[in-house]
What we know:
Elements: E1 2-3, H1 10-15, E2 34-43, E3 46-53, E4 59-64, H2 69-82, E5 87-90, H3 99-107, E6 111-114, H4 124-139, H5 146-159, H6 169-172, H7 178-199, E7 210-214, E8 226-237, E9 240-245, E10 248-253, E11 257-259, E12 264-265
Parallel strand pairs: 2-5, 5-6
Antiparallel strand pairs: 1-12, 2-3, 3-4, 7-8, 7-11, 8-9, 9-10
Amino acid sequence: MVKTEINKCLRCKMYNPQRGKKFIFVTAYEPGEKVAADIIGPINGSYIITAIDYFTRKAWAKVITTRESNKLVKFFDEVYNDIKIKILILDQSKENLSIEVKQWATRNNVRIHYISPFHHQSNGRIERFNRTIQEGIYKDNSFGNLKTKTKRVLDVYNNVRHSALGMSPDEACNPKRAQEIKLKQFEEIVKFNQRQKKRGAEFIFKEGDRVIIRRETDLTKGKPRFESQGIIINILGNNSYNVKVHNKTIKRHGSQLKLIVEDYFE
């Protein structure tokens, strides 16, 4: 009996956009366990470097004039003085991949987790905070420069009640509230999973799967959305994978991949 993939041929997969995937609720069980950082800008010739703690939702933001690794390290020191970071989640920008940042992480016993290129959804919590900062600055009609407005928005963010916490981030930094936050997080996970059931099951790849990889640049109309072919060689967790393409290995998120189903006989 010949079995074939009947829903979509390979050519269709290459030209059609990927359907939505189920997302994963990222958990943290103590302050500093997971901290994400990012850079916004340029905004009027400056940048804003941001960070957020996954457990307390405590956030930090600082205006910088240039994207240099030494300025990132100084900012990370400031955050680390407030909260002992265990895992630092970063994108794969030139500054984040620098020797200075890696040496800082080694000195402070911090593990860096680099998210998949072109897949900022993997760092969704910091992305949402970045939008909050930008929208707050845009709507702030009070007197002040970018630095002043950023501080005002940050102060409001850290002192306002967050529904996911049941308290403000500054209140969540009180060690006596830790158990309360864990219980609230559990409630949020239950709600999240209930919502995800309505979205349908997520397709998870396994080692050895042949896949096609989503094109992230040169998205000219008429060109295939998925082009290069590769093989899953490692499962990294959180639906991220190492994919061997020709003679190199790249890291991609599951939403950037489509399975190639071979015809076979039995």
